[in-house]
Amino acid sequence: MTRKQKKMVGRIVVAGALFIALQFAPLEGVGKLCTSLGIYLIVAYDILIKSAKGISAGQLLDENFLMAVASLGAFALGVCDGSGDFNEAIAVILFYQIGELFQSCAVSKSRRSITALMDIRPDYAHVEKDGQMNTVSPDAVPVGSVIVVQPGEKVPLDGIVEQSDSALDTSALTGESVPRAVHPGEEVMSGCINLRSPLRIRTTRAFGESTVTKILQLMQEATSRKSKSEQFITKFARIYTPIVCGAALLLALLPPVVLLTMGHPAAWTTWLYRALIFLVISCPCALVLSIPLSFFAGIGGAGRASILIKGSHFMETLARARVAVFDKTGTLTKGVFEVLAVHHSPYSNEQLLQYAAAAESASTHPISRSLRVACKHPLAPSCVSDVEELQGLGVRARVENHRVAVGNSKLMEQEGAKALPCHCVGTIVHIAIDHTYAGHVLISDDLKPTSVLALSRLKELGIKRNVMLTGDNQRTAEEVAKQLAVDEIHFELLPVHKVEHLEQLMRTNRGHVFFVGDGVNDAPVLARADVGIAMGALGSDAAIEAADVVIMDDDPLRIPLAISISRRCLRIVRQNIIFAVGAKAVCLILGAVGLANMWFAIFADVGVLILCVLNSIRAMYNK
User: Fold this and answer.
1) In a domain, 562, yes or no
2) HEC sequence for 168-183
3) Residues 239, 105 within the same domain
4) pTM: predicted TM-score of the whole model, two decimal places
């Protein structure tokens, strides 16, 4: 509980205790009025201040104004009718503040589930320079520096392990409870906790571009983007509040005037009392507060499940998705490649791998890494020049004064080298040297353990079609599609072709389409889809930036979970809208015809708010 909330609890307890004591105190007249007014001010002074500020700012018709008018009006009635009963005036504001406190605690609880990620922000970095160790702020560490992370400390920056084996706690980033072993040459992400041995890490990104910073930015963005439901409620409140204030004014003035014209007593006090009850009941805070809170809680609950949703709009769109489109490599497969064989090469296996690894030396693609790992005797970096990465095709470079092209069969066509087919199933990397075909490398990439189950769950959730788009060859694509039982596959695609196929699916299918990918070449498709979902643990920065949803642990099973969370959140939003509007409508009618008193109005306002807030909190918890 925050300091502000504790202060509010104290005010409510003090005011409540004095209110109870007042019922037994032998006070009458001015003494009772002054005592009641003092108790009222203890719990209501902030509402009166906010109302006054709203009036001065031209924002007259908000919930603070309504509550101030209703409670002060109840005081005025107690004076005017001579009853000296100010209990309703105090009770209105006391119970309203209880409802506000309840809502504030619910928001804080949801916010904590989102901002818990702030704990992963590192405070310092140990930089090694000229044999000396200096402790500096992470944002002051240049790329390429060597940092040392001691056991128990957070990894402050992304980098490559240079020395020592250890284990990392990645639970804050990916939700994975099992420590991950790391060895020299492997990449580590900022925000992880070193568990075992001191690690020497050479940084590869500045702090502003690091994993931990991007995650925090994503979560901050997530709470600032409104869904259509939220936008509707905001517009609704702007129109609704003036209408009910006008209706309350008419209720206070019109019936007495009509009665006077008909020769009957005006009963001004009775109709003013009904108008005040009408105002209290009509306060739209249950809708205005509970709808954003539902989405806020849903985003927080998703974050706890390693699913970062960048805004409630995307949560709403994902809930209505009916077609799922997937990239293959790194999304449905592990993206951890292993060289199995070299075929059709006039060169020795090692020599061909040397040329291929040298050409791919600047690439971060998993296939490139596998070629470098397979090459036992790599060429010196000085042997490589004129590197050109061709998106969706491969890489060209000059290696030892030879023009080397490494990529797919389409790149071989451009080089004028006829690619030979491979009869084995796997990813095929073709190589041409000086425009002459030099053979191909067979690479394996296994399915992720949960990919088959994830696609099956999507079918259970009502996803009508599972589609796979890949740049891989036909045989490999069909083999993977068979294992996954996807409905449709398209292979040997460049990024522009993936976008074209996605747009075709969006035109020909009812319901929203989401795309799941992880590579740089997936960024255009992620940005074009109704909802783009990026695999965040191994995915590229471009893909994560373009995506609307990020799966932090790369587990495909998080995708059906994200849909379930989104749909459950929308159900809760609809429940709150129906309940709040229905309850308000009934209570407003009862108040207008005189069948509801101020106590009933308090329930209609605060009670409905509390019930909606309680319902909203359910969105935070995932089954």
Assistant:
1) no
2) EECHHHHCCCCCEEEC
3) yes
4) 0.65
